[in-house]
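dumping this here before i forget
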Amino acid sequence: MPEIKIGIPLHGKMAARAFHQPSFRERLTEGGFKPLYFLSPTYFRAFDFDPGKYFELQVEQYDALYQKHFFLQQLRMLRRFVVVTDTTDLRFRETIENKLFEATLLGMSGQMAFVNFIRHIPGMGRFLGWLEKQFYVTHAHDKMFIEQEISCVLTPGMGNFGFWNEGSFALEAQRMGIPAFAAITNYDNIVNMGYRGFNPACLAVWSKQMADEAIRLHQFPASKIEITGPIQYDRFKSHLPKNRSEFLQSLNLDPSKKTILFAGGVNIHHYFDIYRVFVRQKEKIWREPFNLVIRPYPHVKLLGSPAWKVLEDMFRDAGAYISNPGSIDATGDRSAELSMDLSFNEGPDELNYLLHYCDVMANYFSTIGLEAAICDLPTIHVGFDTYTFGQRFSVSTRFLQSQTHNRRPLRLAASRVAKNEKELFAGLEAYLGDRTLERDARLAYAESECGELDGQSGSRLVKMIKSRI
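structure:
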């Protein structure tokens, strides 16, 4: 039987770390597929790829179209907000905040009143998507679809906010009679990223909870949904070649000590606060010395900041290990980060080890909290801001705690939220004393978001596509 050529556009980190990981590529090959990857310019121009398997995603054509047409910009903005959830309410307010000093009071008030009216009209998301498909047709990859004899397409997301390029790619395929499948790549995409931009032949979701939300919020038919699980988390169920002692020693850390992981976001103020708590007040955390691992968020806004360079030196001078998922040198080179995104290397990455072998993690309500639950790592979410001067509301802990996916009862039961330093110290002491606390709740939360955690999500996704071509 000849190989089935499947086109896969990769524009962002989540998609790259899901669809390009070695285990999923292996599952595709086993299923009789030949993946042809269409990489965003950031990835495609950073490395030399096999010209028979890798192509450039025409992001620049899509961006030029978006910048040219004001009405298209408005359609996509509206489509972002018509899925009415706590998070999209917050993002709507964030938009108002961004426009506050850039527009006239009358103009801003009128626009916001209009958006707020439109977003609550039933069926508006479907109508906005239809308008966009009718008036803004692209043909950026038509020739490539024909020349490469592509039989089907797999995209992350459904053309909603953050997945516009992949959505345009899928629509081009559908206009040529090529079936387009979609798989959700993050646990907040259905509730947070606005209304879909196309109708996939079948949508792969993580769990029953996610399927229910796709039906309720996106009016997506249940007959075209399959629960496959999160393929990027299959790696957490693979064997770790190094034991805890071997791994910590490889980082020049002491295996006899407790190990605390801090995984931060893009708000650099939080790292200064963590330094103050975990370095300056470390005697309040645990009665004995401990290992401290700092995992910065892999984003140029943080890693490219001069303040981060100062912080990095401060943490290292204090004996902390910096688990940098993508260091950026003085020339702005991001090849290390991009290489990690595309998972060129076989075997578990450093984060996999950290989530399994650390004793507790401190975090600010990010996706890694779910990953920690999957790996049975106790988590404390820092629910207060020591430094607030000059900060936008959208990077505050109050904003993060108010988002739909962060308010789920199971998520809150699976971890602890520290509203002040006293609660943070108490939580750290409790988990360092007994790592099994809230273990059952962590498992329940992980399964509610991810469905069956058996390391076979990639296999189920491949079977889904093959059964519906």
